[in-house]
Automatic annotation (TrEMBL):
GO terms for molecular function: ATP binding; dihydrofolate synthase activity; metal ion binding; tetrahydrofolylpolyglutamate synthase activity. It comes from Lacticaseibacillus manihotivorans DSM 13343 = JCM 12514. Residues 44-272 form the Mur ligase central domain. The keyword DNA-binding does not apply. This is tetrahydrofolate synthase. Its EC number is 6.3.2.17. GO terms for cellular component: cytoplasm. PROSITE patterns: FOLYLPOLYGLU_SYNT_1, FOLYLPOLYGLU_SYNT_2.
């Protein structure tokens, strides 16, 4: 396959629901030589913040001199973003080579076992683990797709497990209670493996505590063992101080804004330190500071234009939207804003719109482009202004309200489409 054919092949794989086991991914990896074995990993899950935290962990460890693989989803500009080494996207030819090999292995399996299938995410996970093993990275930071316990990434044996947050999302797969959702996420905690968690609701805290006791794992909790303090915003970034039982690092600078980001960074710092301790690897405060400062992350309260001020934020569930609204209040106070939002129909549409409507600003709803999962315009509440496309909403903003800050949110897929169109890229 060439690159384009590879991308088409990957996207043509089925998007099947979880079957409650890891049998499919285990069989595929076994046929590929079990690349997940004998490799150092950090495993990151969470309802929100897992991408930001995985990214920051990678930057911190890279700053210490390690070669670091990073597997995340979804992509914003180009598919290759999902498989990175030292924050360099996998090259087109290498991705095509891996996909060709993976497709041949899958075909052989299907010949031996008629009816055998893997999902798109399972296949990509196998490619990522193969890539990191073949390139001999020192450590790979692996972001969970959905949940944790039954996620295809849970075939790895990590050196550190991380749970950034627990909130309502993907209830059809993870359950309708925080206890059930936390149970899925706590499934990445392995016997004797250190665990780092962010701010958790009480129901999730109980579940994680039970799992930690069962696995005899060392547990570091935000607010108990470490924290971010004294946050302040400057231009388009933040300062904060990191505190733990054994360390204080003052006036850290990160190129992100958001009421939740200092806590995310504190989780990332603690996870990186836990990994370094497990491996006997030196990690200095200077390297941590350097890594945090480098931790840009597109589509998360990202300013892409000053005149007019346009901000992209991929908040895609009620917890994320509440964090966004809190951040907007802190940044803009009572200033009038325009918010363009698109929500997928399998999300908590009403709760998200209600949270967005709670602030005194102009809210315009649009469909998320190029996905059958988009909420149709006619299914949005009649009480909220809506447009047939984000382009129409943007045109209306440009004509009428361009003096106001514009926030585009509700789905990372919407954010990706807008970013690709406004910034331009040879994306796929």
């Amino acid at each position: 396959m060439d690159y384009q054919t590879s991308i088409q092949y990957i996207h043509a794989l089925p998007r099947l629901a979880k079957d409650g086991t890891l049998n499919r991914i285990t069989a595929l990896l076994d046929a590929m030589g079990n690349p997940q074995q004998d490799q150092a990993y950090i495993h990151v899950t969470g309802t929100n913040g897992k991408g930001s935290v995985a990214n920051a962990i990678s930057h911190i460890l890279e700053a210490s001199g390690l070669t670091v693989g990073l597997f995340t989803s979804p992509f914003i500009m180009r598919f290759n973003e999902r498989l990175r080494i030292d924050h360099q996207n996998i090259e087109d030819d290498r991705l095509a080579e891996l996909t060709t090999h993976g497709a041949q292995v899958l075909q052989d399996l299907q010949t031996q076992q008629p009816g055998f299938v893997v999902t798109e995410f399972e296949f990509i996970t196998a490619l990522a683990l193969t890539y990191f093993k073949s390139e001999q990275v020192d450590v790979a930071v692996i972001e969970v797709g959905i949940g944790g316990r039954e996620d295809s990434t849970n075939v790895i044996m990590p050196k550190v497990s991380v749970i950034t947050s627990v909130g309502f999302d993907h209830q059809a797969l993870l359950g309708n209670t925080l206890t059930s959702i936390a149970g899925h996420k706590a499934g990445i905690i392995k016997a004797g493996v250190p665990v780092v968690t962010g701010i958790l609701p009480d129901e999730a805290q109980v579940v994680v505590a039970d799992r930690v006791r069962e696995m005899h794992s060392d547990w570091q909790q935000y607010g108990e063992d470490f924290a971010a303090k004294h946050p302040s915003t400057f231009d388009w970034g933040m300062h904060f101080d990191y505190y733990s039982q054994h360390d204080r690092i003052r006036q850290l600078t990160m190129p992100l804004v958001g009421s939740y980001q200092p806590a995310n960074m504190a989780v990332a710092i603690t996870a990186a330190k836990a990994y370094a301790q497990e491996m006997g690897w030196p990690l200095s405060d200077h390297e941590i500071t350097k890594g945090v400062k480098a931790s840009t992350w597109p589509g998360r309260m990202e300013k892409i234009s000053d005149q007019p001020l346009i901000i992209l934020d991929g908040a895609h569930n009620p917890q994320g939207i509440h964090g966004l609204v809190k951040t907007l209040d802190g940044l803009f106070g009572q200033q009038e804003l325009t918010v363009i939002a698109g929500v997928l129909k399998d999300k908590a549409v009403e709760a998200m719109i209600e949270a967005l409507s709670g602030r005194d600003h102009r809210l315009w709803l649009v469909p998320v482009p190029d996905t059958p999962r988009a909420t149709k315009v006619g299914d949005y509440p009649d009480t909220v202004t809506h447009f047939d496309s984000w382009q129409e909403a943007l045109a209306a903003y440009t004509q009428e309200q361009s003096e106001e800050p514009l926030i585009i949110t509700g789905s990372l897929y919407l954010v990706a489409a807008v970013r690709q169109a406004l910034l331009g890229s040879d994306y796929d």
